[in-house]
Design a protein that fits this description.
The complex is a heterodimer of chains A (233) and B (407). With 233 residues, chain A is an alpha/beta fold. Chain A has helices at 54-61, 84-94, 110-121, 126-139, 155-167, 185-201, 213-217, and strands spanning 11-22, 28-39, 43-48, 69-74, 77-78, 95-98, 173-177, 205-209, 221-226, 229-232. Chain A is globular. Classes of the chains: A alpha/beta (233), B alpha+beta (407).
Amino acid sequence: MKGSQEKMQEVILEARNINKEFHDPVTVQVLRDITFTVNKGEFVSVIGKSGCGKSTLLYILSTMDTDYTGELYIDKELMSGRPDPELARIRNEKIGFVFQFHYLLNEFTVLRNVMLPGLKLGRFSEQEIEHRAMERLKMLGIDHLAMQSAYRVSGGEKQRVAIARALINDPHIIMGDEPTGNLDKRNSDIVFNIFKELTEEHNQTLLIVTHDTEFAENSHRIIEMEDGRIIRF
Amino acid sequence: MLLARWRQTLVAAVGVTFSIAMFITLLGFMNGLNDLLDGLILNRTPHVRLYNEIKPSEDQPVNVAGQYKDSYNFISSVKAGISRQEIYNSGPILQTVKADERVLGATPKLLAQVFYNEGTIEITGVINGIDVEEESRLFNFQDYVTAGNPIDAKNVANSIILGKGLADILVADIGDVVQVTTAQGERFSLKVVGYFQSGIQEIDKVQSYASIATTQKLLGKPANYMTDIQVKLHDLEQAPAVAREYAQLFNVDAEDIQTANAQFETGSSVRSLISYAVGITLLIVAGFGIFNILNMMIYEKMDSIAILKATGFSGRDVNLVFLLIAMSIGFFGGVVGLVFGFLFSVVIDNIPFVTAALPTITTYPVNYDVVYYVIGGIFSLITTYFAGFFPARKASRVDPVEIIRGK
């Protein structure tokens, strides 16, 4: 995946006619007929007002939310209707996550946190996973923190650790839910630059939900949502 | 995750440790007592006793007579006829029994009813004529002779080992001579060579022991006269079958230990049942402790569970992690509990316990049977498994979307 600067027109993620309703307390349709595709190497931002359904969409795309109608393809494979353990494996292998909150496990070191999804996948030996984790920490400039406990590093650093964790299994796509939402301007810029670098130098596909219009303006492509519909892409 | 909540985890493990330790201690102590009480009777009781019961003949002459065969005969006030207490053909029977490979040993016994003369007062009693060496080997006779040497009963002519209670009544020291009168009216002087203390007061006030030869002399009987043959088997459980077989084979009465001492079996099993119930209750309480702590842990670790699920751990993996935590609490708590249980048992085993009724006992009795440790270990794992099962299932059903969106 590294090296190639060209962006091939390979579809990584495709949503077809996705509808979702919340039933509690009253039935509200939150997503209407969402259809779009994300190509390999694209840096896509999803923006919209609070409550327009952009986070809901992200969780459906991430396979964590299975309560919807329509079809979802990741890497040209249909995700809809698959059992939970299989989806868990696909998430592990093909999707990386960065959330607003870092969700690091405080009990482990930074390095161990990054290694965790790799250990679960078990594609490489533990030694090799450790080596790959160090590689990614180095790339994000936080390799000196590797042996620290996760709760001892600063907020901006934690988010970078979370990105390193998202990258450990060379996922097809990284999904972010407001990854800069909790960060100050300087750290937001660092995280944005990391995303930029990932997509330009490593041809990494990114799908980021954000409030930050400046962040979105600087990405390759913006999908804007309103009232459960896509109004711009 | 285990490390993060180490204090609560420790409390849970201590709960398991405590209950397992108490379980082991309780069972060890209870069964030690059981063994002791059973031993009081069972060790000294023959597994099969052969004897001739004095009872009326079942075939009364009128029933045997041909001419009254078809009629219904009423006979009232049937009495035992002239029958002897002696076992007929005792020598060959003893030999045959000793040759049986199921039999550990057999020894003859002779009971003599006597009166002890204490001034003008006569005290009834029983003298057991025994083969001292065999009795010591099979029924631990020497353990109950608290003063004097048991073999003196054999080596000193006309000697007797008095029951301790009886000796107190007669004020008879070792070396003194006591007067006895047999049921036939003969008077004898017997030299006291020891005291016998069984631990059961009633027995000690009545029973005395003498060599079989001395007793035969008392009764004026020949050397082959014996009223009982006591048989000890290798396997106690075979006693009823052996008793039935011998009764038929030798045409004598045979009583097995299970029939003779049924009440002891019942007492033992009830005591065991109580200690098991208490031990298991303790474990279940400890299980609830683990259940609570794991439940709390899940609420605190919602974020971690969510991210684990988001990054590709399935519900089953999460379930496994929590079960593993519960089981390791059970395992380590259990192992430490077994060690502590053993230590407590040792402590109890060393507490002095002296009672006049139990001459051979100096400390509290404890049973160290491995079975209790195995049961304790298995139960600690089973309870912690169930304590972990529901919290783990709850954790496995956590919906990561809800947690992550809630932030």
